[in-house]
């Protein structure tokens, strides 16, 4: 197995150190380490982080390979510094059986760019009427630990309670897409001043907040874990903060786009800004940043949602919801959280690696950068500034809201168990 010496990187943004990788493992961390027999990467001024973990990725395969495949999606993940992603269940067929989750798991192994952990559906066909084969998916080769009907809310309280009870038996977690369906019928964007002026159907904050309030109470009653997907409003922050103060086992995620973009962008009628949940107000954005900083929101998750060109290059009402995000997530977090003083790089490592790996039970990921640990690592050049060009993406889809926008930071190297998946900013 080859040796790699990463020389002079700031580990988690701290002091410059050398990191020696031998095979799949970090062999030594220190200063002045010997480079004998090793490939040397000069990393002065760069930040070395544990490989990023995304708890919320849509890889679309099987069934929507025109949008993304496991191969192209994991190439995008590696380009963004990720060494593990959790693949959502809204595929075709739905990942609601052991057979489908094992297929996704196998495709991830074959692709080899990052570890793929399938997320199992909570209900059969994402229809919200009958629990899927939760135990069988957990006991399968894929070892599913996270279950979600993302894209659809588990709005039936009895079904949600039963799911929480079921996964408690093996330490799993239900990741809820918090959207009360009756309150969002015909909704096109955030309900507020902008929606009123544009005449577009409004998506009220309470549609999200009411489901979160119900589910944290259910989790408390059952004594189980619940995770809130793509939390987007200031009111949702307060509910989660209250639940944590009571000792309820709830975790929550925020997307990069909800940390940066607001509903004012919908005035362009550009469908690239159409997303679920919708872009909210500046007040919400600031509340989300504060909550991520103080730990009320546990993690950043991309909700990487690729779509083919025709599903976005159309009128607003007909456009699909969603944005790609794996390749820009770290840059957006650097801009919104690091450069604003909300988080240091150690905080970024926690929110984008340690915590998501812990929530999803991703073995070997989210580990310290120290001797004896798996060499899942990412090197970031924080001084880089560049304009986003979707033509450069590894993803099959191009529906990014950041096209033409300057963002900071660039992933220069990604290592999956000591093997380079990205070298000098290019896929290996």
From TrEMBL:
<feature type="active site">
    <location>
        <position position="303"/>
    </location>
</feature>
<dbReference type="InterPro" id="IPR011059">
    <property type="entry name" value="Metal-dep_hydrolase_composite"/>
</dbReference>
<dbReference type="GO" id="GO:0004038">
    <property type="term" value="F:allantoinase activity"/>
</dbReference>
<protein>
    <recommendedName>
        <fullName>Dihydroorotase</fullName>
        <ecNumber>3.5.2.3</ecNumber>
    </recommendedName>
</protein>
<dbReference type="GO" id="GO:0006145">
    <property type="term" value="P:purine nucleobase catabolic process"/>
</dbReference>
<dbReference type="InterPro" id="IPR024403">
    <property type="entry name" value="DHOase_cat"/>
</dbReference>
<feature type="binding site">
    <location>
        <position position="58"/>
    </location>
    <ligand>
        <name>Zn(2+) 1</name>
    </ligand>
</feature>
<keyword id="KW-0378">Hydrolase</keyword>
<feature type="binding site">
    <location>
        <position position="230"/>
    </location>
    <ligand>
        <name>Zn(2+) 2</name>
    </ligand>
</feature>
<keyword id="KW-0862">Zinc</keyword>
<dbReference type="GO" id="GO:0005737">
    <property type="term" value="C:cytoplasm"/>
</dbReference>
<feature type="binding site">
    <location>
        <position position="90"/>
    </location>
    <ligand>
        <name>substrate</name>
    </ligand>
</feature>
<dbReference type="InterPro" id="IPR050138">
    <property type="entry name" value="DHOase/Allantoinase_Hydrolase"/>
</dbReference>
<comment type="function">
    <text>Catalyzes the reversible cyclization of carbamoyl aspartate to dihydroorotate.</text>
</comment>
<keyword id="KW-0479">Metal-binding</keyword>
<feature type="binding site">
    <location>
        <position position="150"/>
    </location>
    <ligand>
        <name>Zn(2+) 1</name>
    </ligand>
</feature>
<dbReference type="Pfam" id="PF12890">
    <property type="entry name" value="DHOase"/>
</dbReference>
<feature type="domain" description="Dihydroorotase catalytic">
    <location>
        <begin position="45"/>
        <end position="233"/>
    </location>
</feature>
<dbReference type="InterPro" id="IPR002195">
    <property type="entry name" value="Dihydroorotase_CS"/>
</dbReference>
<feature type="binding site">
    <location>
        <position position="56"/>
    </location>
    <ligand>
        <name>Zn(2+) 1</name>
    </ligand>
</feature>
<dbReference type="GO" id="GO:0044205">
    <property type="term" value="P:'de novo' UMP biosynthetic process"/>
</dbReference>
<feature type="binding site">
    <location>
        <position position="276"/>
    </location>
    <ligand>
        <name>substrate</name>
    </ligand>
</feature>
<feature type="binding site">
    <location>
        <position position="307"/>
    </location>
    <ligand>
        <name>substrate</name>
    </ligand>
</feature>
<dbReference type="InterPro" id="IPR032466">
    <property type="entry name" value="Metal_Hydrolase"/>
</dbReference>
<feature type="binding site">
    <location>
        <begin position="58"/>
        <end position="60"/>
    </location>
    <ligand>
        <name>substrate</name>
    </ligand>
</feature>
<dbReference type="InterPro" id="IPR004722">
    <property type="entry name" value="DHOase"/>
</dbReference>
<dbReference type="GO" id="GO:0008270">
    <property type="term" value="F:zinc ion binding"/>
</dbReference>
<keyword id="KW-0665">Pyrimidine biosynthesis</keyword>
<feature type="binding site">
    <location>
        <position position="150"/>
    </location>
    <ligand>
        <name>Zn(2+) 2</name>
    </ligand>
</feature>
<feature type="binding site">
    <location>
        <position position="303"/>
    </location>
    <ligand>
        <name>Zn(2+) 1</name>
    </ligand>
</feature>
<comment type="similarity">
    <text>Belongs to the metallo-dependent hydrolases superfamily. DHOase family. Class I DHOase subfamily.</text>
</comment>
<comment type="pathway">
    <text>Pyrimidine metabolism; UMP biosynthesis via de novo pathway; (S)-dihydroorotate from bicarbonate: step 3/3.</text>
</comment>
<dbReference type="GO" id="GO:0004151">
    <property type="term" value="F:dihydroorotase activity"/>
</dbReference>
<feature type="binding site">
    <location>
        <position position="177"/>
    </location>
    <ligand>
        <name>Zn(2+) 2</name>
    </ligand>
</feature>
